[in-house]
TrEMBL record, chain A:
Belongs to the bacterial solute-binding protein SsuA/TauA family. It comes from Actinomadura napierensis. PROSITE patterns: PROKAR_LIPOPROTEIN (PS51257). Keywords: Signal. Pfam families: NMT1. Its main location: periplasm. It is found in: Periplasm. It comes from the Bacteria. Residues 1-29 form the signal peptide. Residues 36-259 form the Solute-binding protein family 3/N-terminal domain. This is ABC transporter substrate-binding protein.
UniProtKB/TrEMBL annotation, chain B:
Residues 76-260 form the ABC transmembrane type-1 domain. Its main location: membrane. This is ABC transporter permease. Keywords: Cell membrane, Membrane, Transmembrane, Transmembrane helix, Transport. Gene3D superfamilies: MetI-like. It comes from Actinomadura napierensis. It is found in: Cell membrane. The keyword Membrane applies.
Length: 319, 276
């Protein structure tokens, strides 16, 4: 009874606080100086460094106060950044290349996350059911493979994986499914293989799934997957702000890369990943430097697979 | 001593039941209990895999965990706030515009095709527009909520205005009532039951769109928490939050019906209900 009353009291206090506060609610209310920057991210493992950096005060050091505006998908992030609703966003490189090729004025400011570079020990991969005849990426030819977004980084890298294994990458049936729906679809046999990332990869393997390919590893060594970006307008009009964000981001990425336990711990603050899964999952690498070669590879794949006709200049996208 | 207590308890139970044969709420609870039992048994019996549909007890314990976090209560507040603001704006706009449009036959004739064109546009189809205008903030969800629930109110008010007794209207006109007095004494009492119906429909629609917006756009609230749970493969938490949303729906319905009864207590339809 007492606990219920305490919970109710806590709840009402929180309600009041939220009602009065409106937005933010960050810990550093002491300083008047910091500029508030809005960052739009998807609440997934990949963006742990930005949360960790905010917690460790790396952004406060640069006189920045982060305001997170989480989105459910990259599709909502790019327009929000272009229209200036938010200052920075998080997206994978292929999406950025696609957006850039359509003339959207985007600029990468810091790397996001990268493949571990270790085969079968990456944070994403292609998984099949335990009894499946599919053994390698080559066996995926003619099969139904689920990816979270068609014509994006995951199907192009799975194709790269198949090509590397010597298969005909054109002859694969890709199906679009959200990550949370993939394991159930695989289980029911609606698809033959799924390309999943953490925490679904760990969950899939724990439930008897078999990893057949690490598509990011097969694409390029230490492939950078995603990046933090801004609009060219913001980059031109607020160069100092962008520089400070990039510096804080770099420090956060470095810290995250060196302190995997801190990363696993921060996951509990912005996701609902089960602690037992969080401690077991494979973390991506968090590179501190933008990987131009990797971006070029993804861009070439986008052209090769017909996502875009003509590749935009990579340098135009990079800082 | 013990015997007396038990007897008392039994007596109480019987006493409660004696008033009416089987009260409606008891049947409702029985139905709910049946659903809970089903949700517990189906995964346990292995009809559905537990990792895709956890037993009801797992959902409840996940709900208890959620209730211990500040994020849950903040999200609940965000949802209720978005719903209330959206509903209030939609109701106010629907009533004012409904009376204005419905009261002037010429305007109504001119607007009817426009209304019939705009009304069936599903709010969800406006998500890209909302995101472009307001990003992933609460305002983009609010836009959806207002858009969807506004039509519910407006259309009802238009019907209500049309339903005014012509004799009463002509009488008011003959006595040279001022327009506002006409609205207050003739139009409003006739339209009020319609307004309340619109309000009740709008309350439900507003909640649906509030959750949809949060879920799809990612604006703060319970819908977003559901999406986060889904993205974290926290299946039990996801169902727990879905249950909470369902409960909000029930509470909203009960409150709106109570408001309706109170506002329309003079109206024959409600009076009859009370008498029976």
């Amino acid at each position: 009874m007492n606990r219920i009353r305490a919970a109710l009291a806590a709840a009402s206090v929180l309600l009041l606080a939220a009602a009065c506060g409106g937005g933010g609610g960050s810990s550093d209310a002491s300083d008047k100086g910091p500029a508030t920057v809005k960052v739009s991210v998807i609440p997934i493992v990949d963006v742990a460094p930005v949360y960790l950096g905010a917690q460790q005060g790396f952004f406060a050091e640069q006189k920045l106060k982060l305001q997170f505006e989480t989105a459910q998908g990259g599709a909502a992030i790019v327009p929000a950044v272009v229209s200036g609703q938010v200052d920075f966003g998080f997206s994978n490189y292929t999406s950025l290349v696609l957006a850039r090729s359509k003339g959207l004025p985007l600029k990468v400011v810091a790397p996001g996350n990268a493949s571990t570079g270790a085969d079968k020990k990456d944070f994403g991969g292609v998984v099949v059911k335990s009894g499946s005849p599919i053994r390698t990426a080559k066996d995926l030819v003619g099969k139904r493979v689920a990816v979270n977004t068609l014509n994006n980084i995951n199907d192009t890298t799975v194709r790269a994986s198949i090509r590397k294994a010597g298969g005909d990458a054109k002859n694969v049936k890709f199906t679009e499914l959200a990550f949370p729906d993939m394991l159930a679809a695989l289980d029911k046999g609606n698809v033959d293989a799924v390309q999943v990332v953490e925490p679904f990869l760990t969950t899939a393997l724990k439930n008897g799934g078999r990893l057949v390919a690490s598509n990011y590893v097969d694409t390029a060594p230490n492939l950078t997957i995603a990046a933090y970006f801004t609009s060219q307008k913001t980059a031109a009009s607020k160069p100092d702000l962008v520089k400070r964000f990039a510096a804080a981001m770099q420090k956060s990425l470095q810290y995250a890369d060196q302190n995997p336990d801190a990363v696993r711990k921060i996951l509990g603050t912005y996701t609902k990943i089960d602690p037992s899964v969080a401690s077991a999952l494979t973390l991506p690498k968090f590179p501190a430097r933008v990987d131009q070669a990797g971006l070029q590879t993804l861009e070439n794949l986008a052209v090769q697979d017909g996502l875009i006709k003509k590749a935009p200049d990579v340098k135009d996208l990079l800082p | 001593m013990t015997a007396a207590v038990t007897a008392d308890a039994v007596g109480d139970g019987r006493g409660g039941r004696r008033h009416r044969t089987v009260p409606g709420w008891l049947l409702g609870l029985a139905g709910l209990a049946g659903l809970m039992a089903l949700a517990e048994v189906v995964p346990r019996a292995g009809l559905v895999k537990k990792r895709f549909l956890p037993p009801f007890s797992d959902m409840l314990s996940a709900l208890a965990d959620e209730a211990g976090t500040g994020a849950f209560w903040r999200a609940l507040l965000e949802t209720l706030r978005g719903w209330a603001i959206g509903l209030a704006v939609a109701t106010a706009a629907g009533v004012v515009l409904g009376i204005a449009i419905g009261g002037l036959p010429l305007v109504r004739a001119a607007m009817s095709s426009t209304i019939e064109f705009l009304r069936p546009i599903p709010s969800v189809a406006l998500i890209p527009l909302a995101v472009l205008l307001y990003g992933t903030t609460m305002r983009s969800t609010l836009l959806l909520v207002v858009y969807a629930s506004f039509w519910q109110v407006l259309v009802q008010v238009l019907y209500g205005v049309r339903d005014v007794d012509p004799v009463a209207r002509e009488t008011a006109r003959s006595y040279r009532f001022r327009p506002l007095t006409q609205v207050r004494t003739v139009l409003w009492p006739t339209a009020l039951p319609y307004v309340m119906t619109g309000f009740r429909l709008a309350a439900a629609v507003a909640l649906i769109l509030e959750i949809t917006g949060e879920l799809v756009i990612g604006s703060p609230g319970l819908g977003k928490q559901i999406a986060v749970a889904q993205g974290s493969n926290a299946v039990a938490s996801m169902y727990a939050l879905v249950i909470v949303v369902g409960l909000i729906g029930v509470v909203v319905n009960v409150i709106v019906r109570a408001v309706e009864r109170r506002v329309l207590r003079w109206h024959p339809s409600v009076r009859r209900e009370v008498v029976s």
